[in-house]
């Protein structure tokens, strides 16, 4: 309870989390879900626009191809955003990068909002690309900004709010996309343009809050601004211990410049850190959680839920992810990172097996659709309790200040590439494997659980330097520290 009381006392920190989240990872979840409701209306718009231009209607397979381009523009933009996020975070700072990132959403909202008036479906495709760029930048920079601004004891919970805002965006996108609100045939341009509202809220609120104290001290060397930022974020707390720890990290990276992504692959001192984020970032998209939403409508229909009520039940799946991410937020600094990741992937593997059995017996046994429905909720709950949030926290904790932006570029690029890969490949997997389409996801969950269980160290409650030391022991287990790496001697000289 002491941790909770400290969090409640620090109003500025809570408001900073909200200001960063509403225009940050909230947009990722929101923009994934709002495109689902108007699918048929946009496809009709594409056909009507082409007919008006050429006098010839589009064939159904061409409409499907144009729609796939529209959907694919989002992860392509996300990949672009992930690549530019690192240089933005280094040159502009964490806070300024989040603020400027809203420009992409404002452009996107303008394009999609006026697309029907301009009779141009190409504007929707371009809009989805810019929306993806915004999501790619925020998915990388927001957890970095919040983890660097949080006190050590609350670092996991604060950084994990990024996942909570993603889930909140997902649910609100599903709600706003209902026919009664903005999901109708006449209002879909307003639905696609509604992402401008969170952007304007962030542009209004975030400038009032401080920059990351670690960025100010370690990257810019501005100790006074760092102390001022800490005082705003911590209130009346004693800052001496935290400042000393940051000064020690500054001394450890003194004379170094921010690293490029390819330099992380070349550095043997970062071998296990890099392997860990590559495995976990890839598994986050390859575990099959997003594909559960693909099956949701079909399973709910088989369970006897009326067609017009299914959108309301689908909101329940998004709500599951929100509830579990908030729960994970509360327990991460008590339970630790490894147990949540390990438990999440083990449970997902178990539910994948049950889900495939239930799908195969869907038409044979009357109660199997209900078991399939339970599996969907259980799978999403298992994903939300660990992998959904913890994965985004780890790059901040296992890399130092000079390597962190490059690490997030690698994580973000993998996340978006694998999102595109699963989106493209999953229909073919379903066609080939039918009811056993979750076998590839099962393999990913089992392999990831084994990696976490055997190779990932716990980072709960440790300073960045302590985590760095633990990984150095792993990286140079069979080698002499003196011959291969000089870092530990430098760090030992700055130990508190």
Please name the defining characteristics of this protein.
496 residues, mainly alpha, 26 helices, 0% strand
Care to describe what's here?
This protein has helices at 2-9, 11-22, 25-33, 39-54, 60-91, 94-113, 115-118, 122-149, 155-176, 188-193, 196-205, 213-219, 223-234, 240-252, 261-266, 271-286, 289-302, 310-335, 337-360, 368-385, 387-398, 404-433, 439-455, 464-475, 481-484, 487-492. It is mainly α and 496 residues long. It is globular and about 65 Å long. Mean pLDDT is 84; it is low at 480-496. 48% of the residues are buried. The longest helix is centred in the first third of the chain and has 32 residues, at 60-91. The chain contains 26 helices and no strands. Helix content is 77%, strand content 0%.
